[in-house]
Amino acid sequence: MKRPRQHIIETESKKHLNSIIPDHWVARELASDYGLDFMVEIFKGESSTGSIFYLQLKGSDQIIEDNVISYQLKKEHIEYYSSIPSPVLFVLFSTTTKQFWGLWSNLLKDVLIAEGSKQKTFKLNLDKGHLIDKSFFVVLEKSFSTELPKKVNISIITTSDKGTLYHQQLIKWIQYYYGEYVEIDNSQLPSTLKFEYKENPENSLSISVTGSRKSFDLAAIDISDDTFFYLPILDINHCPKQFNEVLILVSFLLHKYNIRNSIELLIKNIGQYEGQLLNPIFLFEIIKKGIESNSILEIQNLSKATIEQNRLDIFQLVNFSILTFNTEGRLTDLYQSNLLNAIEKLKDKSLIGTFSYNLANSYRSTHELFLASKFYQNARKNKPEYLDKFYWWFEYAGVLFLSSHYYFSEKFYKRSYELNSEHFAPLIFSLLGDSLFFQGKFSEAKDEFDKFLNVESEFSFEEIFLKRQVCENFILAKLDKISFDFEKSRELTEQAFKDKNPEMLTEAIASFPLNGLAWFNYGVFLTDNNDNENAFTAFLTAACIQDWDKEAWKNCFLISLNLNKQDGLLLIYNVILNKFGIESVNYIAEHLLKDPNLESETKIELIKAFSDLATTRKQSDDKKAST
């Protein structure tokens, strides 16, 4: 029987590995099902240091060119190595050149993130910078700690004295902000920031920085005034402008190690910086990491600093980043306070107008309607051209509607439509219809609802269809455009409830047709008297007036079911799903199970049918959302 080549490679790899690991160390081979090959214990002389790391060894027959070796790694293996608390050294051996390459596992995780989490395998390329030999372990013995694989090596390449002096001053800043995460000229570290300096004839210094598999060529620095080279003490409150760009880059390259210090370093350097590093991608990464690590105060300080240092371009990027990552709403206060701070300190009326509009939109989203109205007005006052923008009228109309100023919301929606009729159709028809409906202009509202229903739309039509039906009922009852007597209607409703007098309820409705409570109580009275047809109309009217009323919609649904109104039943069921979510199936099921008029088997069948319908609807909505 022939021995497989892979087994021979494994044996050869282990044999050569023993030749580079110090003899006084102990490398314990692990069982094959352990997922790692060796547990290595570091000794100094005859005494154990107590330090251990794991080693995964792979061998290859591939042809080696330019000291580069490649290997395909599975995603599950990278995740496994990264999950182990102790350091893991991934080692590749070439049977053709007898060389070893090594990489600590935390950098393998970086490869996975960079390439994309959907991949199942990743191609790992190790070059001459990853070559290891016996000297690697000799140095490791002196410097090893469990945190060592997570640190960054700071190295320098220069033939210039000025480059050396510049680097010495730069190191002071890096060590102050990232001291526990960096080491200077330690080639055993898995990650390196390499600074390369070149002195130019025109008395300037070119800087190139390589890190995270990327190289950055920075703008040449004027060193005609070189006094900053010789400052003996680091003054963190006064950063020489010659360090602005390189420290901004360092704050980005090392932000994963200490996001709070990275943001502080940014604050100290953005004021004088006019280069291209502070782009959306850069700032998005910083803000995202800050949010993930709950560095909210630091992000707020960054926003304030951009205003104080008149860096409005950066302020807008920072605040937009906050808005982008505000998925759970917990950053809304931060976003709003940043805009308030900017509005208070800025002199530029156009920018004040823009920020006021953004703030108004945010207040509208949190239902702070008075503040939303105030800042929509402030936006218009400071930037009058908003009066020509359809979206200003549209957004403000929504606030007016939610504030029950239906007359003004109607006017604002109409003005928005005049400015851009193509943008809103058919949505604007339903919004106008609602504004007219709550003014008691039922015939006009019906016309707008008809316009909406006559246009094919991705918007749900069920509630509008039902509201149109209620408008028709009001028109037939000669309640269109009557004068409202709110107080009389309220008093009659209260008295009717006390006296259990349905005639008072009808009088209350005649005084104010949009009295949802009167309609609901009237529906209860009609149900108790087995007048289900009229009870359905009463509950439907109550539900359309106060669309948040889950009980009113539920009563409509159950009465439709009892009356076998199949078309109306599905319309109402879809409205309930839209308004209250798929969880409302449980709410309906509870009431079906209590219904004395239905057989047990029928109840179960109905619950299953409605549950299946809701699930299908949700899957359809999710598919639309994803596309």
Automatic annotation (TrEMBL):
This is DUF4365 domain-containing protein. It holds the Pfam family DUF4365. It comes from the Bacteria. InterPro entries: DUF4365, TPR-like_helical_dom_sf. Residues 11-113 form the DUF4365 domain. SUPFAM superfamilies: TPR-like.
